[in-house]
Amino acid sequence: MSPVTRRTLLVGGLALTTLSAASSRPVDPFTLGVASGDPTPDSVLLWTRLAPVPLAEDGSGGMPPRPVEVAWELAHDDRFRHIARRGTEWARPELGHSVHVDVTGLSPGREYFYRFATNNHLSRTGRTRTTPQPWTLTTPLTMAFASCAQYEHGYFTAYRRLAEDEPDLVLHLGDYQYEYESGVHVAPNGNVRGVEGPRTVTLANYRQRYAQYKSDADLQAAHAVAPWSVVWDDHEIDDNWAGEIYGKPEKPQPDFMTRRKAAFQAYYENMPIRQAPRGVGLQLYRRVHWGQLATFHMLDTRQYRDDQACGDGIKPCDERLNPTRTILGPDQESWLLKGFQDSTARWDVLGQQVFFSQYDHTSGPVQETNLDAWDGYAADRDRVVTGFKDTRNAVVLTGDVHASWGVDIKERWDDPTSRTVATELAGSSITSGGDGSEDYPETPQWLAENPHIKYFNNRRGYVRTHLTPTTFQADFRGLNHVSTPGATATTKATFLIEDRNPGLNRL
User: Fold this and answer.
1) According to the model, what pLDDT value does residue 463 have?
2) Which CATH superfamily, name and number, covers 6-129?
3) What is the CATH number of domain 141-506?
4) For the segment 335-392, what is each residue's pLDDT rounded down to a tens digit?
5) How far apart are CA 159 and CA 266, in angstroms?
6) Could you state, in order of their start, the residue ranges of all structural domains in the chain?
7) Where is the PhoD-like phosphatase metallophosphatase domain (predicted)?
């Protein structure tokens, strides 16, 4: 974006010159875009991070080691003629010069526009909205969810297509960025882009990596179109980490908690979330209420889980059935089940990371399951499935698996004739895995062994949903390539879930 004049900033009510007023050529600090998140009926969280040199190796983004004042505006219109709120915040070096503004006192169910300014520069304009009044049921909702965007594996075109759909809300279900150094984790058809810096271990590493991701124009467009609600999975820290345990026991990392703390801080600095880290933890589980139409229970299936059973992987494992094993941790599990009991929502939606339903990877009586997913914590899953009885309609949204899946959640997994109690929608990756395909040669075998799985597609993309009081429609949106930019998105399949009738109906 070209610098705007000081006169323009004064007219817009955002006159700040704080970085280098004496400089004749100030550098744009808004290279990472803007974002908003976690709306309520009267508030929304606005975000930006100043980084005139986003790929600086020290993670500073090229910012000076001092606080910088940033002005912000929230308006009813995209020309900012009718201002709803405005103010200033400090972008501080100890938080990566990020800005988190919790704007309150807003009207429910309204669209707003926002922007930031500093150093004679104006950010792009973002669009956001508040949620409806708590008792509102009839206002429909268009929500999109996405996950798994490995920079090297492709272009972020799917984010651009998601933005073009202009959803009211976006959920990101993890693997927003990947920790690998360049060339280590290669897509099947080869990597198409490189990442800067080494494997992310230090705070500076994580800050630099987020800056490279957030410099992407397609990702910035998706952030600017609607409020997001985000949760992490493993790659925001390291592959298959579990609680306080490094994901690769064969390669011990005694300072893993130091690394985890740095990753948590970088996550907060780069996401539109209210909760900041405390000590070595960051509470991400929370709820977003869309009136009485939907409650989104955003889960953290990494920070509180037991270590993966039987050394992790896909294999037979009796330990996964141990009734004491947990993927949520006792506090989060109690919070979730109590939320089901108290819910008055038409749709209770779980925004979470790893495959929820049972999935047997091999034919025959022996079960080979993914021990990093809910299959490795079967008793905890059973408790959640039992809790679904307290909801009117339960839908589980899933990331991680780099493909699109539609699943009927059964009361008893090993009895295909048992009652369907909920539905799982697993979205594909934005890029992870490269271009992909329509399916795998093994697909017929998988579906035969797992009759509760109703749909599979291996293209990259996202899921677009439309919620009303009577239906939950899911469009699996796919791109035929991500190895080159500009692919179109097409609807590979559409399913409908009906009120009080769990399970998938293909349209």
Assistant:
1) 98
2) Purple acid phosphatase-like, N-terminal (2.60.40.380)
3) 3.60.21.70
4) 999 999 999 999 999 999 999 999 999 988 999 999 999 999 999 999 999 999 999 9
5) 22
6) 6-129, 141-506
7) 143-476
